[in-house]
Amino acid sequence: MPREKVVRIWDEREVVYSPKRWRYLWEKREKALKIMERLSQFDPYLYGSVARGDVRQDSDIDIFIPVRVPSYLIELALEGLVRRRKIVMATPWHLIKGVIKIDEETTVTFPLIEPTDRELEFYRWGGTVELWGAKTRERVPGVNKKLILIIPTEKGHIEREVVGREREIAKILGVSVDIITERIHVLTRRDRIGRTGIYINEEVPDWMTFEKALKVIADRDPNVRRKVRERGGI
What's the rounded Cα separation, in Å, for the pair 185 and 177? Predict the structure, then answer.
């Protein structure tokens, strides 16, 4: 999928969805709901465009578990669906996460160390729907990768620019202004210099648990080892 660039819009604009776009949304929601029901004991979130509603045919279905639990419990709940397993850490300062690929468009992510409030705010920034909201077709506001706030409407959504409206956006999303300014900095910098890669992005062998794989990484990487010691995880 081509990387989305930050765009500038003036004031706001309304987008009305076509019948095809509504169909894409509800098909992806139905698929997400089935997975979230399997994970219900872990209070999963659906986040991103499928939570907001501004999907395309190629939009990913992203599910996040907001608490640290033994990975084998998550894999048991997803028995028969797990296709690929990875450990991901965006930078040495970011959350260490387990990633389970269900298929090419569907991913379940969960923390391998205790997440901070700021790290959980990242998901609310993009828009999150809990299991009940997924069942009732709730749609929520959130910010896309172009730094545009998406506000759902009955006909589609309204778009507002984020830059210059940080306090307003923070209030709408229920997050701190700090996460707004951080994301603006990260995404505008990415546009200027391009994506710089992911610090840790490693496949977990079928025969190894996520926790064991994290220990192997921590044994060789002092940044990971320090993070694990600070917040647990093995």
Answer: 12
Residues near 49 by Cβ (< 8 Å), separated by ≥ 6? 55, 56, 59, 60, 127, 144, 150
CA distance linking residue 215 with residue 106, whole number of Å: 26
Query: Helical H runs in 39-173?
Result: 49-52, 71-77, 117-126, 131-135, 166-173
pTM of the prediction?
A: 0.91
Please name which of 108, 119, 86 lies closest in space to residue 198, comparing C-alpha atoms. 86
Angstrom distance (rounded) from CA 172 to CA 165:
11
Distance from C-alpha of 65 to C-alpha of 111, rounded to nearest angstrom: 7
CA atoms in the 13 A half-sphere facing the CB of 47: 24
Instruction: Give residue 64's Cα distance to chain centre.
Output: 6
- β-partners of residue 84 are 101
Tokens 């009955």 — which residue?
154
Mean pLDDT (10-residue bins), the chain, 234 residues: 44 91 98 98 98 97 97 98 96 94 97 94 96 97 95 96 93 95 86 74 96 97 94 78
Domains of the chain: 16-144+197-225 (3.30.460)
